[in-house]
Structure formats: structure tokens, C-alpha cells
């Protein structure tokens, strides 16, 4: 499964929707692109493509035997905002995607 996203006229194809389906056993009815951002600008590498997945649902049991263990957590909008404001997201891209996702949903 690939996802095609239009970034200002440039069509990018991503195969991660299939990876998410495989490793987290989730699929979403809609993916909203939140942008692409360089997360290590000194070297010009580590581009993060951030998305908001809407209507995600469980489709199988997770199969992530070749990756580190993942724990899928569920939060309400208020809980996400509270965690963000309390500095509980320790990775900047996680905090950024939460801010942009909550803004998109507002």
C-alpha cells in the first residue's frame, strides 16, 4: 500500500501506510499531510514527513518481531494537550506532530 501526497506540486509516494498496517496492525481511512521538515539541519538529513491519520482502526494483531517493541497508547484531545503543555513529549517531532494534529482538528 502506498500513499501519494502532494507537497506544493511535488507528489511523494510513501510506503509507510503498509508498514503501519503491518507493525501496528492499524489502517486509517484518511491521511492528512502535515508537512515535511528537516530534523537534522546541520547535515541536511533526517526529513520527517508528518501526517494525521483519521479513522484509524485495528485490522489484525501487530507483527513487529524485527523492530523494538511498540506500545500503542490512546489519549483524548484534552489528555494530549495536557501532556504537551507539561513537556511529556521528549522528542521534538512527536511534540510537533501533536501540535499540528490538534491544530488541524480544531
What would you say this structure looks like, in words?
- It is a single chain.
- The protein is an alpha+beta fold and 106 residues long.
- It folds into two domains: 1-64, no CATH class; 73-106.
- Helix content is 30%, strand content 33%.
- It has three helices and six strands.
- The protein has helices spanning 16-24, 77-85, 92-105; strands at residues 3-7, 10-14, 26-27, 30-40, 45-54, 57-58.
- A two-stranded antiparallel sheet has the order 1-2. Strands 3-6 form a two-stranded antiparallel ribbon. A two-stranded antiparallel ribbon has the order 4-5.
- It is globular.
Structural class: alpha+beta
Taking the alpha carbons of the first and last residues, their distance comes to 29 Å
For the record, the count of structural domains works out to 2
Low-confidence stretches: none
String of helices and strands: EEHEEEEHH
The 3D shape can be described as globular
Number of DSSP helices? 3
Biggest sheet overview? 2 strands, antiparallel
Strand order of the largest sheet: 1-2
Cα gyration radius (Å): 15 Å
The share of residues in extended strands comes to 25-35%
Mean pLDDT: 78
Portion of residues in helices?
Answer: 25-40%
Number of strands: 6
Amino acid at each position: 500500500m502506498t500513499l501519494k501526497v502532494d507537497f506544493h506540486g511535488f507528489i511523494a509516494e510513501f510506503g509507510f501506510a503498509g508498514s503501519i498496517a503491518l507493525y501496528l496492525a492499524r489502517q486509517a481511512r484518511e491521511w492528512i499531510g502535515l508537512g515535511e521538515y528537516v530534523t537534522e539541519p546541520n547535515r541536511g538529513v533526517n526529513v520527517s514527513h508528518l501526517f494525521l491519520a483519521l479513522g484509524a482502526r485495528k485490522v489484525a494483531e501487530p507483527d513487529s518481531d524485527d523492530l523494538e517493541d511498540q506500545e500503542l497508547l490512546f489519549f483524548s484531545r484534552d489528555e494530549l494537550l495536557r501532556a504537551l503543555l507539561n513537556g511529556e513529549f521528549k522528542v521534538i517531532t512527536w511534540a510537533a506532530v501533536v501540535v499540528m494534529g490538534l491544530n488541524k482538528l480544531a
